[in-house]
Amino acid sequence: MRFPSHIALALCGGLLTAAETFTEDLLVKPLQDGRVLLHFEFSVQRAAPTANDTLHHYQLFPRQIGEISRRYDVNELYLSFTQGGWREGKWGSPPVNSQGIGAEVRARIKEGDPAKSESQWRGLTNALSGVFCASLNFIDTTNTATPRLTFADADSPASGVLRHGYLPRENVCTENLTPWVKQLPCQSKSGLGLLLNPYRLYNTDFHSMELSLSSMKDGKGTPVQQYKQRLSVVVDPGTLGLGDRWSLADLVDRQLGTACPVAARSTVRVIQPGFGLKLTPKPSETSKLAGRGVSVFDLHKQPSVDIVFEFAPQEGNDAWPSERPTISAHRYVTGHGGSSGGVESTLTNRGDKPVNVTYLDVLPWYLRVYSHTLEIQTQAADGSWALLRPTSVAFTPAIDRERPSSLELALVLPPSSRTTLRYSFDKGFLKYTEHPPDANRGFNIGPAIVSYQHDALSGELPLHCAIEQALAGPSECIVRTYTELFLASLPTPDFSMPYNVITFTCTILALFFGRIFNLLTRDFAVLKPFEA
């Protein structure tokens, strides 16, 4: 029996859609200083494409990402745009693992010829630059590292060549958000995408937009490909003229509608601060997240809901539990003058158990790091200092205008300790064409990254791990902490000298040429007195 073509296409489309699942979730968390965290998470999961898959059907999975991963042999991909600093002292642990200001790209490319891998990485950054309207095409060999210790954890099980690039001066704006939203199955037409108002999302104290592509196995052991889009913002209701009573629509200036029709799950989850918060209407259900009560609003059961938040007045911050992460990291630049300098990083372990961490610092080629100047000291809870020997060291020296220097350390931080790392560098000389327009301001240097695996017995689960386990099930918790950026002041030439030389030379040439041209072209004639 032969079916009409439109019926066959509908059946095929239904089968393909059934093989792909889409979920959307919004987490709302009131913070200690009166601000509010909004964390959007969209996830698409499909069967992993095989080598014999030549049809390349795309239903819910974004076609741009699928074609880019297939074209450049990418097993894993991570991209983030972050603006503003995360204040862990007031806001607790972050909802995402990307707190470094700027743009970060990380990809694991299938193993092969090193030259081909480099070409694939270059093509990948250029493709992502075009898709997301960013300056990712400026990521080249001079700011690309190949970490060996930092990202070799359980959430990166795939094999391949790892590439990591960072642009600390990348500005984030609405032109990055627009293509990001277009990759959602319902875009901004329905579901939680309706709340993505760029006028409010970029008028915030912290903004982090990221996407990740990973290969894994589901509960049945079937290989699947998972694509996640996350957006985290910290909004201050006070700057919007809102008091102790406001709604979600007031916060983002958009009214929430129905759930996305193709979403298997569409929820809004509100983390209760533990006191004085009244929500209207009543949630669909309640649950727990990181030891805190959570009110869950299911958009399939409560469409077009507008959640109203009403806070009772509180005196002091005693009711707020301490949520500072177990490990915190900070980095500073030391030294003075235009010839040399140094880096000092401080790692603090607030837990009562030793923690294994990896430390990654990638410095550009014009900051020539000396590995023999590395000094690591740790201060115990009783105030005594001792030298700390790393369990593993991976150092890659820089090559001028070819690759940066990379320092990776595996450390065991003692309990209740403060560890300090120091190392020195020399400042190189740049050509005058290699300086940015604001050369006297200095060069932004990307952050150092500290990674460790959270122990379930050592304290409260970090927020991003609690969200992941609540939405996707139990998994290992890998925490990455980013330090601050710092400015490197390099020897700067006198940019007025070329102008002075050009002006002086042109003046001399003009005078010389004018006189010579006058002598060569003038017609001299002798006039008699009576003809004068």
Overall description:
There is one protein chain. The chain has 532 residues and is α+β, with helices and mostly antiparallel strands. Strand 12 and strand 13 form a beta hairpin. The protein has 9 helices and 27 strands. It is 19% helix and 34% strand. The strands form 5 sheets. The protein has an 11-stranded mixed β-sheet, sandwiched between helices.
Features:
2 domains; globular; alpha+beta; Subunit of the glycosylphosphatidylinositol transamidase complex-like protein; Immunoglobulin-like; 532 residues; disordered N terminus
How is this fold's topology laid out?
Elements: H1 5-18, E1 21-30, E2 36-47, H2 63-71, E3 74-83, H3 88-91, E4 102-109, H4 114-131, E5 144-145, E6 161-167, H5 174-182, H6 198-201, E7 206-217, E8 223-235, E9 245-247, H7 248-252, E10 265-271, E11 277-280, E12 285-289, E13 292-298, E14 308-311, E15 327-334, E16 340-349, E17 355-363, E18 367-369, E19 375-379, E20 385-387, E21 392-396, E22 405-413, E23 417-427, E24 443-445, E25 449-453, H8 463-472, E26 478-482, E27 486-488, H9 496-521
Parallel strand pairs: 1-10
Antiparallel strand pairs: 1-2, 2-8, 3-4, 3-7, 4-6, 5-6, 7-8, 9-14, 10-13, 11-14, 12-13, 15-16, 16-23, 17-22, 17-25, 18-23, 19-20, 19-23, 21-22, 24-27, 25-26
Protein name: Subunit of the glycosylphosphatidylinositol transamidase complex-like protein
